[in-house]
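Hi V.,

Quick status before I head out on leave. The structure for the redesign project is tokenized and pasted below; the design run finished overnight.
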């Protein structure tokens, strides 16, 4: 059975034939069940990413109502991921510059050290959950004795600002946000910089976990390509980048019409939401030849999976390096294959396709 809709597709066994059908027959349509426009073609997704009137939050609710008056809400309001207009334009360049201050060698070191610390004491799923945030925390200079608690605080913050958050999650996110802002202030950071510091850890969380899980599965599945990846750090980076394009861990993201507008010739009403299906755009022939083939040796591969336009991911190279360095170290140390087992299911998320693995 094909998935019921584009959000159910995220955790469906075979979403790509469904995505192909949408992309070829109706690259932009209104789904009454989801109450969202759904965009699947590369051209329309790109147009949406660069449209000045399509914003990341509903215009009537820039901060989720449940977070108003909480420290988590204050941090939310200062995240580049969650803002548009003057605030976003003022602070995104600093974020991009901050991301560039780390060399790939810095990131590889942080990822390997995090993996060496976490591998002996966690099962595979908990390991993949902790690795990205702890690698980022190391890059941000979080002291060793605070790495675990910082990772937990970031996870609480992410859960509490999510759409499925219960009252207790919001309470935990609130105290996590306070503690993380104090960490930033102690380093002499202004509130907006302290919020960006949280953003680096928070944004790394679920998508990089999913990228790691897909990479582990693909390395186990294709021995010949895995052997080529094992030959060099660059080979492993190319493998991970192709996993990202092919599996699209971040399957979709959303935009909201700040004013009435036209997208691909269709009229979108003020406040209406648009689901941008990055996973479908990633398999568009207009983006890459033979898009359904997994081929780390592609010349000039292109992916929509890290977004594009003004909200494009500043952590792309960092995320790929965290996963590639971790996989490279674990495989050369003989600690990989016995650790990551077969897939048992998916995490229940509406935007991230994150396999759970047997431990
Ligand atoms: C170390 C890991 C990561 C960091 C530090 C990071 C950081 C960020 C930040 C700060 C943003 C917000 C940019 C803005 O709104 O202007 C962002 C956006 C984004 N990131 Fe990442 N990210 C990481 C990993 C990933 C991974 C692994 C993926 C995909 C598999 C991903 C996909 C995206 C996408 C699609 C967006 C744009 C969302 C949108 O436009 O709606 N990120 N990232």
């Amino acid at each position: 059975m094909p998935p019921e809709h584009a959000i159910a597709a995220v955790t469906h066994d075979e979403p790509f034939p469904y995505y192909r059908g949408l992309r070829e027959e109706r690259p932009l349509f209104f789904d009454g069940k989801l109450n969202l426009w759904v965009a699947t073609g590369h051209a329309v997704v790109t147009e949406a990413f660069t449209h000045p009137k399509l914003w990341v939050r509903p215009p009537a609710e820039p901060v989720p109502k449940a977070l108003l008056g909480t420290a988590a809400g204050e941090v939310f309001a200062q995240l580049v991921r969650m803002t548009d207009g003057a605030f976003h334009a003022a602070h995104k360049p600093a974020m991009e510059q901050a991301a560039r201050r780390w060399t790939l060698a810095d990131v590889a070191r942080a990822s390997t050290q995090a993996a060496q610390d976490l591998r002996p004491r966690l099962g595979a799923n908990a390991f993949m959950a902790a690795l990205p945030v702890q690698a980022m925390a190391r890059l941000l200079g979080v002291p060793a004795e605070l790495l675990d608690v910082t990772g937990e605080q970031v996870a609480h913050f992410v859960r509490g600002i999510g759409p499925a958050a219960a009252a207790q999650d919001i309470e935990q996110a609130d105290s996590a946000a306070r503690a993380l802002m104090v960490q930033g202030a102690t380093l002499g950071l202004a509130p907006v910089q302290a919020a960006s510091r949280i953003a680096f850890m928070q944004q790394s969380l679920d998508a990089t976990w999913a990228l790691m899980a897909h990479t582990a599965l693909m390395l186990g599945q294709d021995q010949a390509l895995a052997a080529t990846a094992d030959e060099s750090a660059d080979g492993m980076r190319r493998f991970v980048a192709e996993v990202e394009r092919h599996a699209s861990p971040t399957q979709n993201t959303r935009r909201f019409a700040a004013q009435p507008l036209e997208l691909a010739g269709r009229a979108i009403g003020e406040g209406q939401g648009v689901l941008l299906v990055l996973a479908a755009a990633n398999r568009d022939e207009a983006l890459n030849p033979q898009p359904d083939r997994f081929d780390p040796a592609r010349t000039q591969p292109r992916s929509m999976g890290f977004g594009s336009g003004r909200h494009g991911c500043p952590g792309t190279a960092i995320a790929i390096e965290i996963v590639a360095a971790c996989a490279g170290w674990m495989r050369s140390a003989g600690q990989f294959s016995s650790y990551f087992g077969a897939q048992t299911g998916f995490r229940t998320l509406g935007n991230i396709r994150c396999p759970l693995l047997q431990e």
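Above is the designed sequence. Strands lie at 28-31, 36-39, 54-55, 252-257, 261-263, 266-268, 273-277, 343-346, 355-357.

G. will cover questions while I'm gone.

Best,
W.
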